[in-house]
Write a structure and sequence with these properties.
78 residues, 434 Repressor (Amino-terminal Domain), 5 helices
Length: 78
C-alpha cells in the first residue's frame, strides 16, 4: 500500500469503528454479519489493513448503510 493511502485507510477504520459503536454491536458481531474474522475487523478499525470492495460492501450491509456512505465519510474525515 502506498504511503499516501494510509490516511484514508486510517479514516475508513475510524468510520467503521464509529458506525459499529453507533449500532451497539461488538467487533465479533460485526465480523459475523460481514463474513469476516474478528481479528480482521480489529485490523481494519485500527487502520492496519486496507480492504477490498467486497469487504467494504459486506461491512456496509452489516452496518445497515451503503459502501458509498462509508467511503464518503472516510474521505471527508481524513
Amino acid at each position: 500500500m502506498a504511503h499516501s493511502d494510509r490516511p484514508l485507510v486510517e479514516a475508513f477504520g475510524r468510520v467503521v469503528r464509529d458506525r459499529r459503536h453507533d449500532a451497539g454491536i461488538s467487533q465479533m458481531e460485526l465480523a459475523l454479519a460481514a463474513g469476516l474474522a474478528s481479528s480482521f475487523v480489529s485490523q481494519i478499525e485500527n487502520g492496519l489493513r486496507g480492504v477490498s470492495l467486497e469487504t467494504i460492501a459486506g461491512l456496509a450491509k452489516a452496518l445497515d448503510t451503503s459502501a458509498e456512505d462509508l467511503i464518503g465519510a472516510a474521505e471527508r474525515s481524513r
